[in-house]
Structure formats: C-alpha cells, structure tokens
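Workshop exercise sheet. Pairs work together: one partner reads the sequence aloud, the other fills in the structure field after running the prediction. Swap roles for the next sheet.
Pair: D.N. / O.F.
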Amino acid sequence: MLVAAAVCPCPPLLVPEVAGGAAHEMDEARAACYDAITVLAAARPDRLVVVGAADPAGRGRYPQGATGSFRAFGVGLEVRLGSGEGPSAGHPLPPSLTVGAWLLKRTGWGAAPVEGLAVGEPLPKERCAQTGRELSASAERVALLVMGDGSACRTIKAPGYFDERATAFDAEAARALGAADPAGLLALDEELAYELKASGRACWQVLAGAAENAGLKGLLLYDRAPYGVGYLVASWS
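Structure field:
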C-alpha cells in the first residue's frame, strides 16, 4: 500500500556541481525537494521506489546499488541508488533516476531499501496506472519518489520554445499534485503533454495508479518555471 510520495523535478541543474555559478537559482526548488523527502522518511516505508522517465535504452527496473553519473553534463560526479556497496551491475541509471539518487544521498536516506523504475514518456495512462497499482501492492508500506518535469514551453527561451497552452497544463498538474488527486493526474492529456515536452506526465500517472484508495493528502511545496520549464514539488502523506 502506498503510504507516502514525493514529487520532484529532475533537471541536472538541481545539482549544484552541475549548475555551477547558477546553483543559487535552484535553491528554493532544492530545499522543497529535501522537505518532501523528509516526509517520505517519516512515513516509515518498507520500500522506496524512485520513478523517472527514460529513453528506450534506459527503461526498466534498477536494483539498490545501481549507479549513475553526471559526466554527460560535464561533472565527474557519481551517485548510487540507496546504500548498496561494490561495483554496480547492469545499465547505469538514466538522468531522472540519477538526480533522484543524488537527492536521496544529499538527504541521508536510510529509512528503507531503494529501487528504481524508469518508464517511457509515451507510456499510455492505462499502463501507467496499472504499473502504479503493482508498485503499491508490492509491500505493506510503499513510498514513491517521483521524478519529472512539467512543460518545457513556458517562455521563448525554453527548450521547447513558447506554447500558450503550457501555463494551463502546468497549472492543472500543480493543482492535482497539490490536492493528491489521482483522477486529476490521470486526466492530463497524453498528446498535449508530449507536445509540451512534459517529462513528468507518465511518472505522475504511475503515482496516480499507486495512490488509488490510499486516502493520502497532498501539499504543493514549489511551483516555478525558472528556465521556462515547469518545476513542481509536492508531498503526499
């Protein structure tokens, strides 16, 4: 059963070593992520699953101890998922899960074993919801750290340029996340999310499936678009 969830954005710029001199621009978002993860730990989960989007080569499950790095972003920083030791087996973590692993390390996570699940951004909402239900049923007390961004089209300098639909899309996502509203998340339009380059849509809908009948309450901790990309942080408990 799902007992808590934290929703965080996943830009590598969240990591100060990657952001460099611009690190202060993400201070509020970073602090909100730390607060959301603190709530996860307080829920005393038996299992934590970090959920993030990935390209086809990076999709699938990742065990505790899997590693990822920020070398592709010019920084020789490596992180490990959870507290596993020794050499990592299998594929390296995709960027979304690597940022999630960094957040857990930064907050000193030790409340429960950690696993990763990378899903495809085009995954249909029905399969997202079913995946979430399966995660929720996998242990008596399950927590999710859900990594994903909103639209990337909020300004003309955004990665996806400006799209007048982006603000309304992000506002509805923020409302649903802040209200812990699974039905609202499942109502987000898949095609529109794809057009707006919203990497969080599939991950949020996995959360929606996991949270069905869980009776969780939500709190929106951060809602900004500092680089023309919608960054949302929410806590469900």
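Discussion prompt: Strands lie at 2-8, 47-54, 60-62, 67-69, 78-80, 114-120, 142-147, 218-224, 231-236. What would you look at next?
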